[in-house]
Amino acid sequence: MEHQEGGHNEEAALYARIIVGWHAGMGMDQWQRRFKRRQDERLVRYQHAVARFHDSDLSDPAIQLAIARSRLPGRWSGLTR
């Protein structure tokens, strides 16, 4: 059973890297186009949150859960509060 759990964690880490990578590239570009003022508070919070996740250990299940909880359909709720 341990081997199977490890496989799930590797898969979750991969998904976390995909999500964070997308937001570091495409998501950041979309937010910057949306907000004309580069220092808009929501944009700054988004940038900090993406950077925080980017610098995190994405193989850590707690980080994966935090990313999942931040992600809601259509927006990163935890990043825009």
Detail the poorly predicted runs.
none
Assembly status: single chain
What portion of residues belong to β-strands? under 5%
Q: What is the strand arrangement across the widest sheet?
A: 1-2
Overall shape: it is elongated
Q: What's the SSE pattern?
A: HHHEEH
Distinct helical segment count: 4
Main beta sheet: 2 strands, antiparallel
- How many domain regions? 1
Distance between the termini: 39 Å
State the helical fraction: over 70%
- Overall pLDDT metric: 77
Question: How many beta-strand runs?
Answer: 2
Radius of gyration using CA atoms only: 14 Å
Give the helices and strands, then pairings:
Blueprint: H1 2-34, H2 41-54, H3 61-70, E1 71-72, E2 75-76, H4 77-80
Antiparallel strand pairs: 1-2
Helix pairs in contact: 1-2, 1-3
